[in-house]
């Protein structure tokens, strides 16, 4: 007698750890860590961790909307002219809005089938590179991009320090030992690096 357990599929997404990044001496922006933990067959990696800025969320929403014309996509938090990156309330309000946006999107099977969404959540590719990858203009596939990003970002920042001292022990599939529910400091930022500032605005 064989019992087949049907595990309920889940996708946990956390938008956390806002950080101010300097583009140059005049311009700064905030990026946020996006942490994914899932058992869904839709995802190439079961855990991942990237950093994205508001402008990239705007790009993602536009692309998803152009591909899924009949779906009314959830709104992003409004882009207010009075947004102050030094005001913790403003920053946290935006962070919550971005998390709610992703939570709603990840419940839609049609949107989940869009490769751009997966590249956005599981690689640090720029919007231009995501477009190129999805339209077949790169040597690497979507899955290749996700796997190579994961292998580059396997270690925690603390482990990076250890590696520099000559120690090395990498565990290939568990990229985060954190539940993601505690305070987010460097010890649980699962190896996210800030994306290099790109020229789109």
TrEMBL record:
Keywords: Cytoplasm, Endosome, Lipid-binding, Membrane, Protein transport, Transport. SUPFAM superfamilies: PX domain. Residues 175-189 have a biased composition (Low complexity). GO terms for molecular function: phosphatidylinositol phosphate binding. Gene3D superfamilies: Phox-like domain. The keyword Nucleotide-binding does not apply. One of its GO terms (biological process) is intracellular protein transport. It is a peripheral membrane protein. GO terms for cellular component: endosome. PROSITE patterns: PX (PS50195). Residues 157-170 have a biased composition (Basic and acidic residues). Residues 10-127 form the PX domain. Pfam families: PX. Residues 157-201 are annotated as: Disordered. It is found in: Cytoplasm; Endomembrane system; Endosome. The keyword Protein transport applies. PANTHER family: PX DOMAIN-CONTAINING PROTEIN, SORTING NEXIN-10. Belongs to the sorting nexin family. This is SNX10 protein. It comes from Chaetorhynchus papuensis.
